[in-house]
């Protein structure tokens, strides 16, 4: 069969209506996704969300119950061998051979990936350097720390120069420097056109290394896009305002506004839990000014990514509270009201 041409605009990873059932349990549900070339796509979601199941299907280790998957435009069901050539899959907590030295382990895989004997040493050395493990090349697998093992497994994954990297929780166990190095590796590969799908249940672990993210829960892709677009889709926002006069009218205006759910006075500012868009914010500001309140600052507090994730993954995670206006700074703070301050 002729391999399909792989034009630059072909999504490098694509799923169409993919579903995976383990008996009664649906681990991945109706999931459609397109990832363009060079993207570093973070797959985020709580334990059991279906991240590993999706990555395993993309790596052709499990067949979907329903739906289609494409790698570099190649249908995995139709032409798995051709697709597989482009895939570098790093499983979650993958071990290394305990009795082999790091370089022996990597040379073994270089041979199995078909790297010619004359080029194996060079390729292994390049990959060791990429993951900053050159100085440990003679260490035995059994003596590596968890983070070092992760790095060696990543080096192994990079050996065949895959076009699509599927990395399941590669950052878990990495120290901050190794994590920054992982980011550098992925960015450098992205510039060469390599597309990465990288999973984690910690959004902050991925946020600074990904160009876009997908949020999964209970097998479904809840949101997909740039981090900014996902933060902007947050149903709640937090406003912070300062006033120098008219404080006595403030409570009434805020209480009247159906989009305000809670107000806490903190460090001299009123922190307002608000469910509305930018136009609603402008209306609120207008109402405050019309009520003779001298507003000196009115701003949206940047949403925390973890809050956004919790709100998206479990709408109940954002606790609906009675409308309470707290204007006394000295009232002992309740942990649920603390959550409104995302500074
Ligand atoms: N081999 C299997 N047989 C039966 N159920 C499975 C199997 N593998 C996974 N599951 C179930 O499928 C669901 C999704 O699991 P999956 O491993 O894909 O989640 P995950 O998002 O990778 O979670 P984690 O963050 O814990 O790694 C879970 O409910 C899990 O129990
Ligand atoms: Mg997993």
Structural notes for this entry:
It is a single chain. The chain is α/β, with parallel strands linked by helices and 343 residues long. It folds into 2 domains: 13-231, P-loop containing nucleotide triphosphate hydrolases (Rossmann fold), CATH 3.40.50.300; 234-338, Alpha-Beta Plaits (2-Layer Sandwich), CATH 3.30.70.100. 33% of the residues lie in helices and 27% in strands. Bound molecules: adenosine-5'-triphosphate and magnesium ion.
The CATH class name of the largest domain reads Alpha Beta
Report the total helices. 12
| Largest pleated sheet | 6 strands, mixed
Mean pLDDT figure: 86
Bound ions, cofactors and other small molecules, one mention each: adenosine-5'-triphosphate, magnesium ion
What is the helix/strand order? EEEHEEHEHHHEHEHEEHEHEEHEHEH
Strand tally is: 15
Assign the CATH topology of the largest domain: Rossmann fold
In angstroms, what is the radius of gyration?
25 Å
Task: Give the N-to-C terminal Cα separation.
Answer: 57 Å
**Category by helix and strand content:** alpha/beta
Short description:
The protein has helices at 51-58, 80-84, 102-112, 117-130, 146-158, 176-191, 203-207, 227-232, 247-256, 278-290, 305-313, 335-338; strands at residues 13-22, 25-35, 40-44, 66-71, 74-75, 87-90, 164-167, 195-200, 212-217, 220-225, 237-245, 260-266, 269-274, 294-301, 324-326.
Task: Sum up the structure in keywords.
Alpha-Beta Plaits, 12 helices, Rossmann fold, disordered C terminus, binds adenosine-5'-triphosphate, alpha/beta, 27% strand, binds magnesium ion, single chain, five-stranded mixed sheet, 15 strands, six-stranded mixed sheet, 343 residues, 33% helix, 2 domains
């Amino acid at each position: 069969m002729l391999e399909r041409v792989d034009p630059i605009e072909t999504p490098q990873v694509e799923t169409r209506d993919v579903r995976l059932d383990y008996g009664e349990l649906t681990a991945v549900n109706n999931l459609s996704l397109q990832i363009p070339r060079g993207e570093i796509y973070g797959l985020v979601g709580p334990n059991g969300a279906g991240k590993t199941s999706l990555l395993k299907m993309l790596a052709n280790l499990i067949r979907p119950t329903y739906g289609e998957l494409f790698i570099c435009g190649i249908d995995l069901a139709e032409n798995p061998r051709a697709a597989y050539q482009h895939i570098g899959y790093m499983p979650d907590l993958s071990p290394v051979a305990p009795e082999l030295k790091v370089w022996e382990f990597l040379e073994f895989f270089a041979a199995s990936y078909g790297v010619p004997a004359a080029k194996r040493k060079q390729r292994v050395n390049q990959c060791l350097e990429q993951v900053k493990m050159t100085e440990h090349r003679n260490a035995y697998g059994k003596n590596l720390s968890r983070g070092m093992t992760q790095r060696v497994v990543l080096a192994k994954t990079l050996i065949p120069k895959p076009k699509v990297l599927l990395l399941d929780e590669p950052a878990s166990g990495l120290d901050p420097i190794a994590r920054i190095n992982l980011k550098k590796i992925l960015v450098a590969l992205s510039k060469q056109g390599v597309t990465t799908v990288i999973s984690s249940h910690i959004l902050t672990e991925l946020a600074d290394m990904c160009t876009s993210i997908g949020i999964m829960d209970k097998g479904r892709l809840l949101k997909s896009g740039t981090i900014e677009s996902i933060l902007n889709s947050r149903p709640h926002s937090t406003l912070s305002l300062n006033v120098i006069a008219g404080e006595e009218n403030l409570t009434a205006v805020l209480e009247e506004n159906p989009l305000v759910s809670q107000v806490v006075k903190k460090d001299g500012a009123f922190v307002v839990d608000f469910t509305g868009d930018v136009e609603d914010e402008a209306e609120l500001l207008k109402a405050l000014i019309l009520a003779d309140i001298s507003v000196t600052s009115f701003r949206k507090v940047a949403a925390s990514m973890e809050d956004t994730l919790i709100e998206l993954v479990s709408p109940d995670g954002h606790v609906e509270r009675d409308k309470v206006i707290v204007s006394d700074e000295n009232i002992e703070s309740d942990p649920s009201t603390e959550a409104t301050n995302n500074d």
